[in-house]
Amino acid sequence: MDRRSVLKSMVMAGAAAMGAPNPLAGSTKQGQGGHGDHDFSVEGLGMLYDATLCIGCKVCMVACRESNGLELPPDTDLWYDPPDLSSEAITIIKLYEGEEGGDFSFVKRQCMHCVDPACVAACPFTAMYKAEDGVVSWDPERCVGCRYCEIGCPFNVPKFEWESRNPRIVKCQLCSHRLAEGGIPACVEECPRDAILFGTREELLEEARRRIATEPDRYHPRIYGEHEAGGTQVLYISRAGIDPGDLGLPALDDTPLPENVRNVQGILYKGMIAPLALYAALGFTIAKNRKAAREDAEEAGTVGYTPYDDDGSPPRENDR
Amino acid sequence: MSSHQDERLAAVGGPIWTPVFKVLAIVAISGVIVSLWRFWVGIGPASALTDAYPWGSWKILNVIVLTALGSGGYALALLVYVLNKGMYHPLVRTAILTSAVGYTTGVIALVVDIGRPWNMVNMARPWEWNLHSVLLEIAVCVSAYMIFLWLEMGEPIIEGWAQAKDTRLRAVARKIGPYVHKYFPWVIATAVLLPTLHQSSLGSLFLLAGPRLHPLWQTPFIPLLFLLSCYAMGYAAVVIATYLSAYVWDTDPHHRMVAKLSKVMAWVLVVFLVIRWADVLNRLSVAEIFGSGTYTWLFLIETMFLAVPGLALLSMKVRGDPGSSFRMAMIIVVGGGLYRLNAALIGFMPGDGFSYFPSVLELTITFGFVAMGIMGYLYFVKRFPILGERLPAGRTAEPGANV
Q1: By CA distance, what is A289's nearest residue in B?
Q2: Which of A53, A145, B240, B361 lies 20 to 30 A from B6 at CA?
Q3: Is residue A5 over pLDDT 50?
Q4: How far is A131 from chain B (nearest CA, A)?
């Protein structure tokens, strides 16, 4: 552990699990398959981004790219400054400029690791899943590349490799490869200003509240991600005068997006009762209709033919 | 319901490789070539799709809009077998054929659209399914429905075999015929249940987009509206296929049936529009409905394209006139297609600064598969008894008044 992560450990007093592998292992019942049974109240791992500390140096972007093996686009010169998240840049620093001069702030974008993620609800084959530690991850063996996760995600986070014949969905997975070895996310480790903290959502919320309470003149009172879309494990605080929700993050209400689906589909398909009842009703109605038609036909002496008409009259000549 | 022997269905006959068929073949082959190229270079170079607009013409036009047009088989089966309106039986084969070609080409387009189609093997691994995914339900139901569309042809095929010259086919028909006959109601029931589920779910897909779908289209009623729109569009497709076939090959245009079907269509549209407007008026303020710029215009145009045929076809005079009912069916296709396009693509708002319009190559694939579907229709009506018998020479079809 180098000096900086020790420092971070101190900042994150109470986050004893910091250096230990899989700090939440065993504390949740979330599994890879059947994520529909997730207990969404369980707190997962996340990050707290303090915009008041960020100086926009983009070291996090470099660290992220190196740690995740993301290649620079082939036509990159000395300066690489992607305007938005892409399959080549899964974290970026953006500059927010207020309407009046001098009013500016940086903002770091990456996967929000939602408590109840729309991408996970979308994915037909659980390729997008919430791992045991709450990290929203992607499994190449299961993904069919349908891109429904991109339709669902309100933060425009999952990115598709459009130029590849073996395309992946690429997004921040909280450096889960580093977590597995007892490390912390590369961006958190390399940030020279300690603007990004790593921990469980609970701890991070507590730290954000503490900062706002101790320095009310320095911080805007809002914590973005506390309630948005049912809560995210990546949280944002910003300096007084700038609402963190104005830093290019979407305005969302407190309802998790999958809830919109559950409210409709969940009722229609609850226990498969309605579809099965419909199926039974259809089957018996059709069987009854066919039997009646056959009997009518036999009575009329026209086996194999029934003069179907609303009023029971034989078809008129101009039907032919 | 009963055998088809007295319905005078017959193959149209004639050469397959007509000039029209050749033109369609060129369009279809172009689509196939671009599709193969897309598998080599990735989706990006072959389309205008982006991370902001990840779904474009292949999913929205080939699947979401065209399977609605391919819902004729479902919508008509519901009328004939469930509501016991057996009079429409002569249209059932036309309807099932349009469904079969519509769904088949839609599914092929879907395979071109998805980035990692080889992982579709997960369809056979139910333990990897996410039962809460609307898209999973659609994938499973659409694939199963394709199989059942062909099984629906089972009864007529067995009946055909029972009268075949080949004694072996006759033996097979005698052997499995009773079983097919016995279980056929459940085959039809499945073939009615599956589209009820997936056509409504095509709308539910966009519930997940939440605030990213414009409120004029984002509603808890979206599954019901998608279901109703598939009935209207499915019937319209059957009317168009029947009339175009009658025009081209002098087959029986079934005027009276089409006129009655138009009445059903009209009521479906009325119900659709009542629910659509009641929902919008209930959820949104007048300012939101009429002050949303382009979205307002799209909503009004879509309403107009469905209200005009809906109201016009209520009139006996309009639906009694083949020309008018044909034109109204065309308008329904446009209006219903626009509703689905709006709800699935145009009303989707991924954020400022993003836009999407399909590229030429993307549309080459889209139209390639449409052409393939039309070729399939042409082939089957020429070689199999799908349509009514050709009318005797010199006899013109009478308009189906008195409906």
Answers
A1: B84
A2: B240
A3: no
A4: 15
Amino acid at site A144: V
Nearest to B84 among A127, A289, A297 (CB): A289
Residues of A in contact with B87 (CB under 8 A): 308-310, 315
Token couple for A275: 């579809």
- pLDDT bucket at B64, cuts 50 / 70 / 90: very high
Question: How close are the terminal C-alpha atoms of chain A, in Å?
Answer: 87
Shared-domain flag, residues A166 and A275: no
The residue-averaged pLDDT of A76-82 equals 81
Convert A56-65 to b/e letters by CB count within 10 Å (16 or more is b): bebbbbebbb
Q: Establish if B305 belongs to a structural domain.
A: yes
For B228-243, the pLDDT digits (tens) are: 999 999 999 999 999 9
A238: domain CATH number is 3.30.70.20
Q: Which residues form the domain of A305?
A: 270-319
Alpha-carbon distances of A290 from A7, B66, B75, B93, B150, rounded to whole Å: 79, 31, 18, 18, 20
Mean pLDDT for the stretch of residues A232-257: 94
CB contact under 8 A, A148 and B205: yes
Q: Is the model's pLDDT at A93 over the cut of 50?
A: yes
pLDDT for residue A13 is more than 80: no
- Residues of chain A with pLDDT > 90, as a percent, come to 63
Rounded mean pLDDT, B320-341:
96
Q: Beta partners for A96? A: A105
Quick check: is B24 in a domain?
Answer: no
Partners of A283 on chain B (C-beta within 8 Å) are: 185-186, 189
- Rounded-to-integer distance, Cα A114 and Cα A39, Å: 13
Closest CB from A142, A148, A166 relative to B122: A142
If contacts are CB pairs under 8 Å, which of residues 123-142 in chain B contact chain A? Answer: 127-137, 139
Q: Is the pLDDT of residue A305 over 60?
A: no
* Total number of domains in chain B: 1
Quick check: is B3 in a domain? Answer: no
B201 CB neighbours in chain A (<8 A) are 265
* Residue B326, burial from CB neighbour count under 10 angstroms (0-12, 13-18, 19+): buried
Euclidean distance between CA atoms A315 and A293, whole angstroms: 15
Select the residue of B49, B82, B255 nearest A162 (Cβ to Cβ): B49
What pTM, to 2 d.p., does this model score?
0.87
The residues pairing with A232 across neighbouring beta strands, listed in sequence order, are: A114
The model's confidence at residue A85, banded by pLDDT at 50, 70 and 90, is very high
CB contacts of B122 in chain A (<8 Å) are 125, 142, 144
Checking if the pLDDT of B116 tops 80, the result is: yes
For residue B170, what are the domain limits? 49-356
Instruction: Give the closest-approach CA distance of B50 to chain A in angstroms.
Output: 8
Torsion of CA A298, A299, A305, A309, to 10 degrees: -150
With cut-offs at 50, 70 and 90, classify the pLDDT of residue B168.
confident
Residue B5 forms part of a structural domain: no
Measured in angstroms, the CA of A22 and the nearest CA of chain B are apart by 24
Interchain pair A308, B87: CB under 8 A = yes
- Inter-chain touch B115–A144, beta carbons under 8 Å: yes
Selecting from B85, B131, B212 the residue whose C-beta is nearest the C-beta of A36 gives B131
The CA R_g of chain A, rounded to the nearest whole Å, is: 28
State the Rg of chain B over Cα.
Answer: 22
Return the pLDDT at A4.
Answer: 46
A86: nearest CA in chain B? B51
Give the CATH number for residue B288. Answer: 1.20.1630.10
**pLDDT of B154:** 65
Total CB pairs under 8 A between chain A and B: 231
ipTM (interface predicted TM): 0.89
d(CA B151, CA A5): 65
